[in-house]
Amino acid sequence: MPLPRTSVPIFGLARRAPALLAALLLAGALTPAAAGAAATYLAGVGCNGPFQENEGPEDVSKDCRNLVAGPFYPEPGYLDSYARSDAGPGGLRVRSDAEIGGGGVQGGSESVAAQAWAEWTFDDFVVVGTGSESVPILAALNLQVSGFLSPSALEIDTTGPLTTSVGSNAQFYLLIDLDGGDAGYGGVSRSLSNGSLSEFAEGLLEDHYSSGEDISDSITSSQVMLPVGSEFTVHVYVNAGTSSSAAVQGTPADENDFALFLGEATSDFSATVKFPTSGPVFVLPAGYTVHSASAGIVDNAVVAPEPAGIFLVATAAAAFCVRFRRRGSLR
């Protein structure tokens, strides 16, 4: 769809287009599709079986549950897995649960697992600044991450030679790509096996998680070189995975020997991974800013063009255009 007529001279439109598109979009003159904005959202799940995905240009979601009987005797127990993922402009939300329970006098090792993943792809981010458009800049992306990991395992052995082995694991990780380049990985995991707890964090999440179930913090990607004055892609992938396992071993000495167990794990990041609601979206050198019509980013900040605030947001975007024009970057 052609752009509406403006008073901007045609020879200056190419350089002014990014900021003008943002102002027009937020003022309601253009929809994201008309402005050439492009976003792709993906949500996927797996519940102890085949993976499933939904993908589209607007909010997408996917969920699954798989509940089956266990192999234990005389109480077969159950294997239960659940996962849900949502992806949209408001954030990436993932949760998975894996639970195993049962009891008896025998049963081989059995396990259950679940995964939920979601991703963003925005391909209309643009950096604008006072420097030369032929010289890329070093930049990093900020994100807000909030969720918790909860493994648990309960094993009750009666007298006799029977033994049980119960374990559970909950983990979460994310990947960030900027302009097709690797901008960092971060992961956190908590595992409980036969009463022993282990936990670790690495990469971008290493300094944002120490111990306990919760993680809620702002993180910053690795720095990468980004173009100035031309569009680049922002891609974020998140994954919440869980697993639980159990086994009954040995031969009962008499009818009084019996073993009970329950293992469960939850990785819940449905509180969302999203762009920061306050402060800058990107860490940029002085004199530069960034925006994306599809992600709702203007002047390096998240905006919410609600009816009451559209005029103020559009005015701010217009002022942003004028400011950079006076600095000489938009000629």
Quick structural summary:
By secondary structure, this protein is mainly beta. It is 11% helix and 58% strand. The protein contains two helices and 17 strands.
Blueprint of the fold:
Blueprint: H1 10-27, E1 39-47, E2 51-56, E3 60-69, E4 73-88, E5 91-129, E6 137-157, E7 163-178, E8 181-193, E9 196-203, E10 214-220, E11 224-226, E12 231-249, E13 259-274, E14 282-283, E15 288-291, E16 297-298, E17 301-302, H2 310-327
Antiparallel strand pairs: 1-2, 1-5, 3-4, 4-5, 5-12, 5-13, 5-15, 6-10, 6-11, 6-13, 6-14, 7-8, 7-12, 8-9, 16-17
Description of the structure:
This protein is mainly beta. It has one domain (39-295). It has helices at residues 10-27, 310-327, and strands at residues 39-47, 51-56, 60-69, 73-88, 91-129, 137-157, 163-178, 181-193, 196-203, 214-220, 224-226, 231-249, 259-274, 282-283, 288-291, 297-298, 301-302. The chain has a 15-stranded antiparallel beta sheet that branches. A two-stranded antiparallel sheet has the order 16-17. Helix 1 (10-27) runs antiparallel to helix 2. Residues 1-35 and 306-331 have low confidence and may be disordered.
Keywords, separated by commas or semicolons:
two-stranded antiparallel ribbon; mainly beta; elongated
Cα shape: elongated
Low-confidence stretches: 1-35, 306-331
Give the overall pLDDT as a whole number: 80
Q: DSSP helix count?
A: 2
Q: What is the number of beta strands?
A: 17
